[in-house]
Write a structure and sequence with these properties.
Largest sheet: 4 strands, antiparallel
Order of helices and strands: EEEHHEEEEE
CATH topology of one domain: Nuclear Transport Factor 2, Chain: A
Strand order of the largest sheet: 2-3-5-6
Distance between the termini: 10 Å
CATH architecture of one domain: Roll
CATH class of one domain: Alpha Beta
Strand content: 25-35%
Helix content: 10-25%
Radius of gyration: 20 Å
Structural class: mainly beta
């Protein structure tokens, strides 16, 4: 998919439409941004011997399970840098695409 290097879009810091430089960042998982610590896991009920395991208790290990594995494409994580105030902000929702090219 081809995306222009410069896009005119709304800047929440300048509060007006300005030109933005588009760049690609590595998509992070929701858990990696705020990982749970040991005590937080215990509070949430993920500690040893707390409750039943639900659906995870009855399934075989993931290595032997055929429905796991990588998807064919990853969601994009585009960053937009305002040319006026030099502040960066992200896109609201990523879209799936195998390859992204900046034109």
């Amino acid at each position: 998919m081809k995306i222009p290097k410069l896009i005119k879009r709304y800047c929440p810091h300048c509060k007006k439409h300005t030109e933005h430089k588009v760049s690609m960042a590595k998509k992070k998982t929701p858990g990696s941004t705020h990982p749970l610590g040991k005590s937080a896991k215990k509070r949430r009920g993920f500690g040893k011997g707390m409750g039943n395991l639900g659906t995870r208790g009855s399934k075989p290990p993931l290595t032997g399970w055929k429905m796991t594995g990588k998807k064919g494409s990853k969601k994009t994580d585009l960053r937009y840098e305002c040319k006026v105030c030099k502040k960066t902000h992200t896109q609201r929702e990523g879209f799936r695409s195998k390859k992204i090219e900046f034109v």
